[in-house]
Structures are given as C-alpha cells and as structure tokens.
Design a protein that fits this description.
- The complex is a heterodimer of chains A (112) and B (107).
- Chain A has no helices and twelve strands.
- Chain A is an all-beta fold.
- In chain A, strands 2, 5, 6, 7, 10, 11 and 12 form a seven-stranded mixed sheet that branches.
- In chain A, a hairpin with a 3-residue loop joins strand 5 and strand 6.
- The radius of gyration of chain A is 13 Å and the shape is globular.
- Chain B has 107 residues and is mostly beta strands.
- Chain B has no helices and nine strands.
- Chain B starts with 8 loop residues before the first strand and ends with a strand.
- Classes of the chains: A mainly beta (112), B mainly beta (107).
- At the A-B interface, strand 5, strand 6 and strand 11 of A face strand 4 of B.
Chain lengths: 112, 107
Amino acid sequence: DVKVTQSSRYLVKRTGEKVFLECVQDMDHENMFWYRQDPGLGLRLIYFSYDVKMKEKGDIPEGYSVSREKKERFSLILESASTNQTSMYLCASSLLGARGYTFGSGTRLTVV
Amino acid sequence: DAKTTQPNSMESNEEEPVHLPCNHSTISGTDYIHWYRQLPSQGPEYVIHGLTSNVNNRMASLAIAEDRKSSTLILHRATLRDAAVYYCIQENTPLVFGKGTRLSVIA
C-alpha cells in the first residue's frame, strides 16, 4: 500500500524554536506539497515542489521554508516558531498534476 | 481561491443514497473535476475525478452536467464511515481546497 509518512503525529514546541516537519513518500512521486489546516479556514498551501531541489511558494509561505534534497523526502521548516503557527500540517504527494494526491495523516503542532 | 461552490453541510440516513452537489461555473473545457474526502483526524483522500461523462468507481459515482458547470458526487448507500468533509475541486496544480461539504450520516 502506497504511503506518505509524516514523522510525528503530535508535536509541542516553544516559541522561537526551529522546527522541522518531515514527510517521506514511497511512491516515487515527483510532486510534494505542504498544507496547513485550521478550523474555519480549510486547507491552505504553504509550499510545494515538482522536483528535487526545486520549491515553489504557495499561498501562505511566510515564516516557513522547505527542503527537498531527495525525491522521497520533503521537509517543512519553521525558522522561528510562533503561536500562530499552531496548526495541523498535512503533507501530500502526487505523480501527475492534480490527479491522485496521497496525503499523510498529519502532524498536529502546538507552539507554546 | 477555490473556484467551486458547495453546501456547507448535508445530512443523510444510513443506507440511503447521498447526492453531494458542486457548482463550477468557470470551468474550462479541459479541466477535470476532482473529489476528495477527509475523515475525522485524517488527511484528505482521493475519491474520484472526471471530465465530461459520468464516472464510477468502488467508492462513488460522479455525474457531470452536460454544460460542465456543475457535478454531483453520489454515494449509493451511505454508511457511518462515510461521515466526512467532501471537497469538490476544479483541476488546478497544485490543488486548491475550499471549505467542502460536511456530511453527517445518521444511524
């Protein structure tokens, strides 16, 4: 069964910490995505990547960066965590365009 | 911005068919319509997609209007496990999710 695995299900970090959220897919997908999901706001796109070492800003990239050194791994980095980054973070991958996204189970991050 | 319009919520009785509507009046001739659903405490999962004609798979059916400005996701017999938020998405890369329709299934 194909999978997108997010390293942590729950995470608690302190304000100002540098936070790494890891995402690994085993489907040899080209495309990978990071979304955050908040009540009443739905899923919002943070960053995405269509190839190794390639990255594109989504709708809300401020306060985040990403790294894609290998095809299967896409990391989301919170340079200096703030309380307004408390959210559910969802990683996804896809082979072609908009079809057949596979999502991970999410990481619920709390910044205190 | 999401380019589709869906009702905020719907309710269905268990084992009844459910028709989830979606309007996408600005769709172009080559854009597919995609449906995803998100079960509680999980990431979204792919349900179905289509272009012009009706589509069926093991999860659901997708009926697309002749003018392609609307579509309907059909769950033939709703179960309690179908309670989820259903997203209708006009093809875009990357996917842009709207608020979706929260489906409640009553036993």
